[in-house]
Design goal:
Number of strands: 3
Order of helices and strands: EEHHEHHH
Strand order of the largest sheet: 1-2-3
Length: 152
């Protein structure tokens, strides 16, 4: 009987459930910066909420009812989920209409996300959905490794 191979060397590639990254809105005055968690399966609470929503979305797709209204509904759901499961705080606060920094709360975060242009919110969603943005040490992956991971 042969011994099972030891692949512990690959542990360094795994993203921890506690991983965070900073996301800066460079096109917004003051460059607000959010500390975010992955919108990925390492974030169990977020994924459970998405999977609940996903059942409804899957039924809609199967019925051939996919439309821009469904995409807007999906974004609408994320406006609520991101402050709850993805955005932990902001390290550089956004400013209100009078130019005053706004303190972080889930309610203030949701108001901010709803106020920014849709494309900027979609960019944030894309960033949080890319697990490579949350790896502890980018140096552990060389270009070939990144290319192989990108194929999965």
């Amino acid at each position: 009987m042969s011994e099972k191979p030891n692949f512990s060397n690959l542990e360094k590639l795994k993203v921890k459930s506690s991983a965070t990254a900073l996301y800066t809105f460079h096109d917004i005055e003051g460059e607000p910066t959010l500390r975010v968690r992955p919108a990925h399966e390492v974030n169990n609470a977020y994924m459970n909420a998405v999977l609940k929503r996903g059942k409804k979305m899957l039924r809609t797709i199967r019925r051939g009812k996919m439309s821009t209204a469904v995409l807007k509904e999906n974004r609408e759901t994320d406006y609520g989920l991101f402050p709850r499961y993805i955005v932990e705080d902001w390290t550089v606060a956004p400013n209100d209409a009078q130019g005053n920094p706004v303190g972080f709360s889930r309610e203030n975060c949701e108001a901010f996300l709803r106020a920014i242009p849709v494309d900027m919110f979609n960019d944030l969603r894309d960033f949080c959905g890319d697990i490579d943005n949350f790896r502890e040490d980018d140096d552990v992956l060389d270009a070939n490794d990144r290319e192989e991971l990108g194929k999965n």
